[in-house]
Amino acid sequence: MHPMFKVSARFAGFLAGTLALATTAFALSGQYETPPEQDPATVLDGKELGPGYAVLAPVRGDGFLRIYQLQTDLGVERIEGDGLLKLRLLEIAVVIGLESLKNDASFVDGLKQAAMKPVEFVESTVTDPVGTAKSTVSGVGRMFGRLTKGVEAVVAGKGGSPTELARSITGQARARRELAVELGVDPYTFYRPLSEKLDETASVTTAGNWTITAITSLLPGGLIVNTARTADNFRTMIVDSTPTELEERTAETFRKAGVSEATIAKIAANPFFTEGEKAVIAYQLLAMPGVQDLDLVAAKAAEAESRDIAYFQLRRVVLLETYNRTVSGLSQIKLVSGIPVAIRRDGLAAIVMPLDMVAWTQTVAQAFSAIHEGLGSLPFPPTGVDFLITGDLTPMAAERLASFGWSITGSYPMPPGPVH
To answer: In what order do the strands lie in the sheet with 407-409?
Structure first.
């Protein structure tokens, strides 16, 4: 079974909207399939159950991404995509690990001392809704169905609260960022339980002689990530930059990568990426200096109108940089049927996407058929197509894509690092 392209309901909608119907007779023969339901134990290799969570059966999909129902103490949360599930499971593990610090009497004393300080804890302003929605279409799926629909800019308020200012003065804010990076999670996480636990744990650095090193020395051995996974300069920037400084440095990095001011502004205003993730996108693009028209990739990311689409675009940028560096050098980006497609230096097209499970649904058929037709209509059509995804595909999807003459690579791993 070949790995392939899987998109969420929102993603399918996003792509299908602007895709023209393909003329390839075999590919659009009217024979479609329903994405298979899968056993979470099979998909997750026996990790469907763990401390603080259970992935409920069955695992559904929309032809692009898998759609999970994750049971935790907070209820049942719908998670779209393998990447976001891996991220959430890591966040849950870190929350549990940080909670275990309360088994140490000296740490508890530190929390008591911190509670006497003037810096008060405040609830995260970013919520993490938990529901029981059973829709079988992901945001990525809706994205592919609505390629022409723009995204309204959401301008976040500027400035900090008195509490945030106090945290900055006492060093608690920096300690929080350092702690998060040590544990391999985003200091700007959207997951409220983790955000609150990072705040609580970092507060002990304002009392006594507690350091992040002292705190992490109490944690379970497997919880500390290898910090070498993240480039030292990038890691230092995340830790040492205030939110405002990080935003400014991210914008400057985008400029160096050739991204337009309009796109930079849209990414900055997009509420579905964390500030850390925006910085990752900027630095990944900067790492591809020989590739022309990277602004097309950034602009597509800026259009993300849901969390799962945003994380899909983040993963896609990371995957594209990895492909350029380790598989085959890229020369430029072309917009094909509304989708940025990379053209390799050897003349082949590289369709590189972090898809979970590609099934030949009508939306998937129309999406890829439109890309196939669009590539053939370019002034200088590519000499071939390398279709690379992080997941799998059904036999029917593999057969249909092979009929295009595409070379298919599945189960390509995401590179080690903070993006899953």
So the answer is: 330-336, 339-344, 349-353, 385-389, 407-409
What residues are paired with 389 via a beta bridge? 353
β-partners of residue 387 are 351, 408
The Cα 143–Cα 18 span in angstroms is 10
- For residues 170 and 119, the answer to whether their CB atoms sit within 8 Å is yes
What percent of the chain stands above pLDDT 90?
70
The answer for 159, left when phi > 0, alpha when psi is -120 to 50, beta otherwise, is left
Number of H helices, E strands in the chain: 17, 14
Cα–Cα distance for residue pair 18/146, rounded to 1 Å? 6
- Per-residue pLDDT of 67-79, as tens digits, reads 999 999 999 999 9
pLDDT tens digit string along 298-312?
999 999 999 999 999
Alpha helices (H) in 171-211, listed in sequence order: 172-182, 192-202
Mind giving me the DSSP string for 215-241? HHTTS-GGGS--GGGS-HHHHHHHHH-
- Is 273 within 8 Å of 306 (Cβ atoms)? no
Q: Is the pTM of this model over 0.85?
A: no
Radius of gyration of the chain (CA): 22
Helix (H) or strand (E) holding 286: helix 275-286
**Pair 156, 267: CB distance under 8 Å:** no
The interaxial angle of helices 9-16 and 307-326, nearest 10 deg, is: 80
